[in-house]
Amino acid sequence: MRQLVSSGSSFEAEIGYSRAVVDGDWIFVSGTTGFDYATMQIADDVAAQCEQTLRNIERALQQANASMADIVRVHYILPHTADFPACWPVLRRWFGTIRPAATMFAAGLADPRMKIEIEVTARRSARG
Q1: What is the pTM of this model?
Q2: What pLDDT is recorded for position 40?
Q3: Which residues contact 52 (CB under 8 A, 6 or more apart)?
């Protein structure tokens, strides 16, 4: 059973992708950035973007009948590796007890205002 999840971001329609795809118990959340999708505004600060990104991911998982506790893998993508340590306190709050497998990549992002993009994989049956 496949379900598409949308955040309502204009990017999804313009580019042609879903915020998340549910396939059975697996949830694949697309690379997500710190835009507030209601206002399409983004903070200048990388830690603030990281926080908003995780709120966006949490909403996508909720739409998929899952939670942050179901995350088993996370990919962090930042254009500037020196920005990553500023995100650690935010990441520790969100993932400190979950402790998913994680990788950080350095790569350019689609919009120069974006300072971090996060992609996660979750499995609903991972709770416990």
Answers
A1: 0.92
A2: 87
A3: 34, 35, 36, 42, 43
Question: Is-contact 27 121, C-beta < 8 A?
Answer: yes
The strand ranges marked E within the chain are: 2-5, 20-23, 26-32, 71-78, 101-106, 117-123
Read off the CATH number of the domain in which 83 is found. Answer: 3.30.1330.40
Total of domains in the chain = 1
Q: How many other C-beta atoms lie within 10 A of the C-beta of residue 27?
A: 25
Give the tens place of pLDDT for each residue, 56-113: 999 999 999 999 999 999 999 999 999 999 999 999 999 999 999 999 999 999 999 9
